[in-house]
Structure formats: C-alpha cells, structure tokens
Design a protein that fits this description.
Elements lengths: L37 H21 L2 H9 L9 H12 L2 E5 L5 H9 L2 E5 L16 H8 L6 H12 L1 H6 L3 H13 L2 E4 L2 E4 L2 H4 L2 H9 L4 E4 L2 H5 L11 E5 L2 H8 L4 H7 L16 E3 L4
Parallel strand pairs: 1-2, 3-6, 5-6
Antiparallel strand pairs: 3-4, 5-7
Bound molecules: 7,8-dihydrobiopterin (HBI) and fe (iii) ion.
The site of 7,8-dihydrobiopterin (HBI) has 11 residues, from helix 4, strand 2 and helix 8.
C-alpha cells in the first residue's frame, strides 16, 4: 500500500499512518466502525483491562469517575455513544481523525469543545509503546477527564490560546504545557500523588514509574517553568510536574501568556532532567 502522504509538516519524524485522502476540511472522518476486526476488539479489551487494574492505586479519582461513566470496557467505543455521555457531562464531543493533525486545526477543535481522536487501534507489536496516538491512547487516556467540567474548561482554554501562541511563534512552548500536564501530569491527593496524564494512564509501565520510581524529578507545577522545559518524546519523562488540584491548574493558567512568550522567545529550553534553585522540589531524581 502506498504510504499516506504527510499532509503537513507534522512535528513527527515518521510518516503518518492514517488515510488523509478522505477527510473533511477540518480533518475529521466518520469512525469506520466496521473496519475494526475481532482482533482489534480483543486488543481493546486487553489494553483496557490491563490499565483498569492499575487505576485504583495510581490514578486520580476524577479520572476514574470519568472512565466509569463511559462504559468502554467491553468493546471499542462508538464515538456517537461516547458523545451522548460526554455531551450530557460537559458538552464536549469527540471527532474521529486519521491521526495527528496540524496544531492550528487541533487547537481550533479544542477551542470548540471537540476532542480529535485517532480512530485506528495499535497492532500487537505496539502494545507497550507506540509513536503516534491511537484510539486507545486518545480515548482511554484523554476522554475520561473531558467529563470533568473544570478539566474540560482547561482544555477549551488551551485550545483558545492556540492562535496567540502561533502568532508569537510559541506553539512549542504551548505544546510543552500540553505535554507535561495533559499527557504527563501528576496531582496531589490526601493519599499521595496520583496520575491524571493521558500519556501515562494509557501506558502500563509509565503509570507505575511516574508514581513509584525514585528516578525522575517531581516538581510543583509552575506555569512559566513548564512552558520553558523541554520534554522526552520516546522515553519515560525525566521530570513530572505536580498540580495541587484541577481548580488550581485552571486558575494559574487563566492568564495572558504573552509575557511568557516574549520572555521565552529564542531562549534554549531547560533540559528535562534539570532542577532549578527556584523549583519547589517534591523529590529530586536520580540521574
Ligand atoms: N493531533 N490528532 C492529534 N492529537 C494530538 O494530541 C495532537 C495533534 N496535533 C498537534 C498536537 N497534538 C500537539 O502539538 C498540541 O500541543 C497542539
Ligand atoms: Fe495524547
């Protein structure tokens, strides 16, 4: 089969897997439910049950509540079914896409309470790690918290901030905030740290590592610090940032990012394993 042409300079080095030939102008497609094989369904149940076992011990309660409400364990969820539940909870909707989409398109969907989900399921050789988000990462990782009004509103604000970041040539800075919070965020609870990031909750090993391992740094969330901190794409994070609550995350991020973009312009980012004297350190990693 011919490799799908990469419709945009994706911030990824690999060729995109999806079929970008037959999609709407906003990159959305109809979820081709009949294309899922029995093996895909089986793999969904395997991945779901494997992660489910870890949630009680490692996941934030708000995430667990959201996942429960989606009844997504027995079969690959239909987008329209999830949209009924999500619509009632926060007004958000899922839209199926072929895979990664351009930043500006992605931001616009978020700003309009639409979360783009890749529709295809990873293969047997990618059960523990895959380069590009698949439906399991997007749905199991991201969708549960979109049923939490405070977090959903944070995601809408993130999308609304997209154009200004692009205007300032700072989409890399905004991508870091997404990465360290939406993909790999930890939250403080009376019972200790819990994971809420999609990147860790959809990954067996990183869910455990992000909470149990003494290796990575864990630092209190600071907006400007995160906007300026580089991240690892193809390995466990060297630093996790910890928020006090979803409310505090929303309040801290509900400001004009322009001064941060201007101060950060052209500066080298902080390397992922570094600790700064100004950091509120929860634990120093072992590097
Ligand atoms: N596209 N489908 C999809 N899913 C993402 O999570 C995604 C994307 N495009 C860009 C992107 N994420 C990040 O660069 C955001 O920070 C914009
Ligand atoms: Fe993601």
């Amino acid at each position: 089969t011919q490799t799908p042409k990469n419709p945009f300079e994706a911030n990824t080095s690999h060729v995109l897997r999806g079929d970008y030939e037959h999609m709407r102008a906003d990159y959305t497609v109809d979820q081709p439910y009949d294309q899922y094989t029995e093996a895909d369904q089986e793999r969904w149940r395997f991945l779901y049950n494997r992660q489910k076992k870890l949630l009680k011990r490692y996941a934030a309660q708000e995430y667990i509540d959201g996942l429960e409400s989606l009844n997504a364990g027995d079969a690959i969820p239909r987008v329209e079914d999830a949209n009924k539940i999500l619509g009632d909870a926060t007004g958000w909707q899922l839209v199926a896409v072929p895979g990664l989409i351009p930043d500006d398109v992605f931001f616009d969907h978020l700003a309009n309470c639409r979360f783009p989900v890749s529709w295809w399921i990873r293969g047997d050789d990618e059960l523990d790690y895959l380069v590009e988000p698949d439906y399991f990462h997007d749905f199991f990782g991201h969708v549960p918290l979109l049923s939490n009004p405070v977090f959903a509103e944070y995601m809408r604000k993130y999308g609304k901030g997209g154009p200004k970041a692009i205007e300032h040539g700072a989409q890399k800075m905004l991508a870091r905030l997404y990465w360290y919070i939406v993909e790999f965020g930890l939250i403080k609870t009376p019972d200790g740290l819990r994971a809420f990031g999609a990147g860790m909750l959809s990954s067996k090993d990183e869910t455990i590592y992000s909470i149990e391992s003494p290796k990575p740094n864990r630092i209190a969330f600071d907006l400007e610090r995160v906007l300026n901190t580089a991240y690892m794409v193809d390995d466990f994070q060297k630093t996790y940032f910890v928020v006090d609550s979803f409310e505090s995350l929303f309040e801290i991020s509900d400001c004009d990012f322009t001064p941060f973009y201007e101060r950060g312009a052209g500066k080298e980012p902080i390397s992922p394993e570094k600790i700064l004297p100004t950091d509120t350190v929860i634990n120093k990693g072992q590097f």
